[in-house]
Amino acid sequence: MSEDNIIPFEQPKPHSRFAGTPMKSDLVEKAAEIVTDPLVLVNMVSKRVRQLNSGRAPLIPTVPSMGAADIALQEIIEGKIKLVGEQVNN
């Protein structure tokens, strides 16, 4: 296939109100002690990051260097966000 036939696929970069830096590993480790299943932790953080980026207010005091994932992890560590149980389909 020639390069003339290749169309680059570019996704727009999501905009976040929380500039910050990549997640801090110490926050990941602390949150992993509370939510021990890594897949559940990832899903919780991901959902909360989407909420924060869509305009929801943080549940903790923040500083400009905190990214949305840092905020979500800190909220989990401080018990502001909890896993409430599993939904059962009957």
Short description:
This protein is an all-alpha fold. The protein is built from three helices and no strands. The chain has helices at residues 25-34, 38-53, 68-77.
Provide structural commentary.
- InterPro entries: DNA-dir_RNA_pol_omega (IPR003716), Pol_omega/Rpo6/RPB6 (IPR006110), RPB6/omega-like_sf (IPR036161).
- This protein is mainly α.
- The chain has a domain of 41 residues.
- It is 40% helix and 0% strand.
- Helix 1 packs parallel to helix 3.
- It is elongated and about 55 Å long.
- The protein starts with 24 loop residues before the first helix and ends in a 13-residue tail after the last helix.
- Rounded radius of gyration (Å): 17 Å
**In terms of per-residue confidence, which ranges show pLDDT below 50 for 5 or more consecutive residues?**
none
Reading the helices and strands in chain order gives HHH
Estimate the strand proportion.
under 5%
Structural class from helices and strands? Answer: mainly alpha
Largest sheet: none
How many helices? The count is 3
- Termini separation: 51 Å
The total beta strand count reads: 0
Helix content: 40-55%
Mean pLDDT: 83
Shape, principal axes of CA atoms: elongated
Distinctive features:
single chain; about 90 residues; mainly alpha; 3 helices; elongated
What's the arrangement of secondary structure elements?
Layout: H1 25-34, H2 38-53, H3 68-77
Helix pairs in contact: 1-3, 2-3
Catalytic activity: RNA(n) + a ribonucleoside 5'-triphosphate = RNA(n+1) + diphosphate
Family: Belongs to the RNA polymerase subunit omega family.
InterPro entries: DNA-dir_RNA_pol_omega, Pol_omega/Rpo6/RPB6, RPB6/omega-like_sf
